[in-house]
Amino acid sequence: MDLYIPLIVLGVLGFGFAAFSVVMASLTGPKRWNRARLDAYECGIEPTPQPVGGGRFPIKYYLTAMLFIVFDIEIIFLYPWAVAFDRMGLFALVEMVLFIVAVLVAYAYIWRRGGLEWD
Questions:
Q1: Binning pLDDT at 50, 70 and 90, where does residue 63 land?
Q2: H or E, element range at 96
Q3: CA atoms within 13 A on the CB side of 38
Q4: What is the DSSP string of 1-59?
């Protein structure tokens, strides 16, 4: 149990800081509400009306998200693999080749669907 004490202390400190920040912001922050403050903020652009049933998003949004996830996960797995490659041997090489093939299939799908064209 002694090994978990630093983690518990860190968790309590993090929760305490978050709670303190929220409480202090609500106590010291301005209480003036106006129409501009209640409007949706879209990076300084005037909000555009949305259709009643929502709206259809272009496939580019999803392809961009998939592209980010594919490359983000690839980096997360490649760095520890490179650090510990000497200890893992041939098994690690085969597993990483299979992983990179799976990533390349996703990359080819994104490329084919036009996810890399930023116009």
A1: confident
A2: helix 90-113
A3: 5
A4: -GGGHHHHHHHHHHHHHHHHHHHHHHHHS-----HHHHSPPBTTBPPPPPPTT--PPPH
